[in-house]
Amino acid sequence: MRRYQLVGDRTARVLRWLCVAGVAASLLSCSGDDETASEPEGVTVPAAGEHFASLAEWHLFSDIGQQTPAPGVEPFQPIAPLYSDYTNKRRFIYVPPGTKIQYSDTGVWTIPVGGALIKTFSYVLDERQGVPERISPDKERLMETRILFRESETKWVAETYVYDQSGQQAERKVAGATIDVSWVNRAGETLTNAYSVPNVNACQTCHGENEAMNAQGLRTRQLNWDHDYGDVTENQVDHFQKLGWIDAPAEREQLVDPFGNGSVSDRMRSYFDSNCASCHREDGFASSSGMWLDWASTDPETQEATNWGVCKQPTSAGGATCELQFDVVPGKPDESILLCRTASAEAKVRMPPLATKIPHAEALGLIREWISQLPAAACSQ
Fold first, then answer.
1. Which of 138, 237, 304, 376 suits 152 as a labelling partner, its CA being 20 to 30 A distant?
2. Cα gap 322→348, rounded to integer Å
3. How far apart are CA 179 and CA 197, in angstroms?
4. Are residues 62 and 152 in the same domain?
5. pTM of the entire predicted model
6. Over the chain, what is the mean pLDDT?
7. Is residue 270 helix, strand or coil?
């Protein structure tokens, strides 16, 4: 009897051990499942003809509130960015696995079908402190994220997502929106703006028609400079090549920082190329103006000065001439329509007509400096 009791005790201990081991294994298994479930999902794009109601559905960010890109989404930064009423911008690109960007030495790069260009607009609430390392509602106000998505070979889709006050969620807005915002600039002045989120149809004015949309900043001359990727700082063109997204480029144009080092001519040409040339080029929305401000058209070595307005009378200003006669009068910025229209806040006069309500003070200084140093010429009708 005692022998059987011993066996029974051993059996009970074994059974208890197996039970504990089983529970532990079960818990470990559950823990593993939870880890898998919490891993960020891959980038998701909408089916043809469909639209995501929230930015989160794209899975472009592992942390929307911090603008941390998801795996497979890369940041990029043009050297001469577009001015948009003093907003801070973060730009990203998604290229589907196994595909490539159609590279161009001088033109805009074309992303493959299924790819997306992403740009988030925000206001740094105290510019004297610089862009914060971590985004928080008391330091930086996220306004909107715009997406250009290449749905097919012949169709692009433009989407706009507007953030809530917390900056944690962004919902789709088709008809645009107006958001009141205030911030302190580098000089300590408090500025206000009724920020305009555009109607998605307005995207075509700058980015092209449905079948051929593009981002003017996604080109060699804008990206041929270093960017800090966190773990490494390297040339962006080289970076995209290492990712296998582009083939080795043969030629590399390069703009300069309009407000950095470089000649006045190169800085002005760079500003024109990024802020004006989407419309002011030979095949652009403002081609009838005869004022072509893309990088190639403003080359003083090969092009006529009338391309960039020197002694040229306006042909399509619609009366918005500030009662002046010529677009650019060399040596006389205050007699030049270019400076007057760029300085104006009037909707029917200001340049550019879209994406801005507040004149770009730094650009006005550059334009004035550039016109002042142009070789003197007597403009005549």
1. 237
2. 11
3. 8
4. yes
5. 0.85
6. 86
7. helix
